[in-house]
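Hi R.,

Here's the chain you asked about this morning:
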Amino acid sequence: MTFINALEENFFACGRYWGSLNSSLNSTQKIYSMNSGIMSADLNWAWNERPLTLDNAGAIAQIKNSYEQLALPFWWWVYPSGQSAVTRTVLESAGLHRETAIPCLAADLSRLPVDAALPAAITISLVENDRDLACWEEISFTGFAMESASQTQYHNFISSFDISCASPQKLFLASIDGKPVATALLLFYQETAGIYFVSTLPAYRRRGIGLNLTRATMHYAQRAGAKFIILQSSAAGLRVYQQAGFKEYCRADIYSIRL
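And here is the predicted structure, written out as tokens:
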């Protein structure tokens, strides 16, 4: 498995898994869509796992219409396996426009340095019960600066998460001096683990909490048997992830409807 394969396969698996939790997953001709019910485009995904053709126009229109009926913004993700000149033409013909390209990073867990001790003030714990999950929800909601109007939808989506031992995803809380201040999520699929939902409360940023949390999730994934770990990064988070040992291997094109 190459790094790009790992990036794509984990992202695709994550979208399919989240869509299955609330029965929002739709698929046709290797084109998928899911929604979280939240008014945030980066939590409502459509994606194609191979290059689009002109014959896909109907399926794309159906997906677009489904989001419009739900009044939800969405991002259409195009990874390298789905990129082509025709893909871009078909999406643009459907009224979607390429907005940006998101850095996609990965690391080989067999080359992970020995796990260093956390700073004395920082602790990292696994979410194992409903009380922890409620705390994780509150911190991530605030950390992502979600609009207050979407709080109920956010709660409904996070409440669908399975936190049992059998779940393919694990949620983490980072605390400083005993106060929970940051979140992360690991999604396991085959040989890969993907990091999602990394957030830190504004007042606790630039203290190394995000870096230590990222490293802790990497070591957890290694111990769980994953060979590769992946994530998608904002421009602001790129330096932190590179410090943790990640490298950029590709970019995912993001298409959306311009309002």
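One quick note: Helices lie at 3-21, 57-70, 85-93, 130-143, 151-159, 209-223, 238-244.

Cheers,
M.
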